[in-house]
Design goal:
single chain; mainly alpha; 2 domains
Length: 104
Amino acid sequence: MASDNPKVLSAAFGAYHLRLLRGWAFCDAKSKATLIRDIVVARIEANQPLLAEKLEFYAKKYNLSVEEFLDRIEQADREGVSVPRLHQQLAAEAGVEVETEDSD
């Protein structure tokens, strides 16, 4: 895991959800960014078993350890490589087919 605390720079919300996010943040006396961070952290913690299973599946598919796989994801994120493009790169390196998705 990286030793710094990187920031996610943007997220798009529809007007309805943004309005409720602002209200929730106000009611909890938090900034929107702090509330979003708290929500994401809680979701990651709640879904750790499923996340571990998914990471293991894809690491194995691409002939990597989970740590190597996470390192590649982190590197791609720093370099601005999209998720579909990274899947393509990893699949090519591993000599496997990649499923296609419509969005990044």
